[in-house]
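User: Let's play a game. I give you a shape written as C-alpha cells, and you guess the letters that built it. Ready? Here's round one.
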C-alpha cells in the first residue's frame, strides 16, 4: 500500500515534465536583431502635491492683488502729477515775470495786518471790511498785473460755474465804477471851487494890501499850468475830431467816386446800346431803300 502511494507522485512528476518539454519544443525561438535595441524614452511626469497646489494658488492671488494695488496707486499718482502740472501752469499764467513777488507779497501782508490793527477796537462791521479793503488796495498797488490776471481767472471760474452770480457781480462792478467816477468828478469840482475861491481871496488881499501874494505862493504858475493842461486837452480833442472828420470825408469821397464810376459805366453801356439801335435802324432803312429801288 505504501509502495503504491510513493509511486504515484513520481509518475505525476514525470508526466508533467514530459508535457512541459513538449510545449517548450513546440514554441519557436525569436530571432535576435544584429543592431542594438534603442533605449526607451523615460518620461518623468511631475505630479505636485496638494500642498504645492495650494501654495501656487495663494502666490498667484497675492501677485494679482499686488499688481492691482500697484496699478491703482500709480493711477492716483499720475492724477496728482497732472494736478501739480495744471496748478503750475495756472500759477505761471497768473504771476507776471515783470513783478517780483518777494517784496510785493510782503507789502500786501503788512498792509492787510495794518487794516486788521486799525479795525481792532472798532465795530464788527469795520473788522470785517477793513482788512479785505486794505488787501485789495495794496495788491492793486504793489502787484497790479498779477492782481488783474487773478481777477480775470476768478471771473472766468465765476462765469463758468455761477453765471447768475457773475451777472450780478458785473452789475455791481459797473455801479461801483459809476459811483467812483462820480466821486472823482465831485472831488475835482470841489477842488476847482476851492482853488477859485482861494484865488479870489488872494486877489482881494493883494488888491487891498498891494502885496504880490500870487507870485509868492506860486498860484500864478499853478493857474498857468492848469490852463496849459486844459488847452492841451482841448487841442487833442480837436485833433481827434479832425482826424475822425478827415477819415469820414475820405470814406465818403471814396464812396462817391465809386458811385460816379459805376454811373459812368452805366451811361457808357446805355450809349453803346443806343448806338447799336441807331445802326440797326440805319441798316434797316438802307435795305428797305434798296429793295424799293430794285
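Assistant: Ready! My guess for every position:
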Amino acid at each position: 500500500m505504501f509502495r503504491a502511494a510513493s509511486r504515484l507522485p513520481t509518475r505525476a512528476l514525470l508526466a508533467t515534465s514530459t508535457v512541459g518539454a513538449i510545449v517548450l519544443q513546440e514554441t519557436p525561438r525569436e530571432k535576435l536583431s544584429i543592431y542594438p535595441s534603442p533605449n526607451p524614452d523615460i518620461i518623468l511626469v511631475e505630479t505636485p502635491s496638494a500642498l504645492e497646489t495650494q501654495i501656487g494658488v495663494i502666490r498667484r492671488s497675492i501677485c494679482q492683488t499686488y499688481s492691482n494695488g500697484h496699478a491703482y496707486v500709480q493711477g492716483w499718482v499720475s492724477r496728482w502729477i497732472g494736478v501739480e502740472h495744471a496748478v503750475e501752469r495756472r500759477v505761471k499764467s497768473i504771476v507776471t515775470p515783470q513783478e517780483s513777488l518777494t517784496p510785493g507779497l510782503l507789502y500786501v501782508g503788512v498792509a492787510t495786518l495794518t487794516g486788521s490793527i486799525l479795525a481792532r477796537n472798532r465795530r464788527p462791521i469795520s473788522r470785517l471790511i477793513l482788512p479785505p479793503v486794505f488787501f485789495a488796495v495794496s495788491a492793486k498797488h504793489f502787484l497790479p498785473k498779477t492782481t488783474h490776471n487773478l481777477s480775470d481767472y476768478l471771473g472766468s471760474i465765476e462765469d463758468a460755474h455761477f453765471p447768475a452770480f457773475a451777472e450780478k457781480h458785473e452789475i455791481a462792478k459797473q455801479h461801483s465804477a459809476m459811483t467812483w467816477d462820480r466821486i472823482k468828478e465831485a472831488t475835482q469840482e470841489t477842488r476847482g471851487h476851492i482853488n477859485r475861491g482861494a484865488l479870489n481871496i488872494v486877489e482881494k488881499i493883494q488888491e487891498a494890501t498891494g502885496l504880490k501874494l500870487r507870485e509868492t505862493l506860486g498860484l500864478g504858475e499853478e493857474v498857468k499850468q492848469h490852463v496849459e493842461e486844459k488847452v492841451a486837452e482841448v487841442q487833442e480833442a480837436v485833433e481827434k475830431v479832425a482826424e475822425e472828420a478827415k477819415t469820414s470825408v475820405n470814406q465818403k469821397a471814396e464812396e462817391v467816386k465809386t458811385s460816379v464810376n459805376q454811373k459812368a459805366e452805366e451811361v457808357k453801356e446805355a450809349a453803346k446800346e443806343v448806338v447799336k439801335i441807331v445802326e440797326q435802324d440805319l441798316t434797316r432803312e438802307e435795305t428797305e431803300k434798296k429793295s424799293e429801288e430794285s
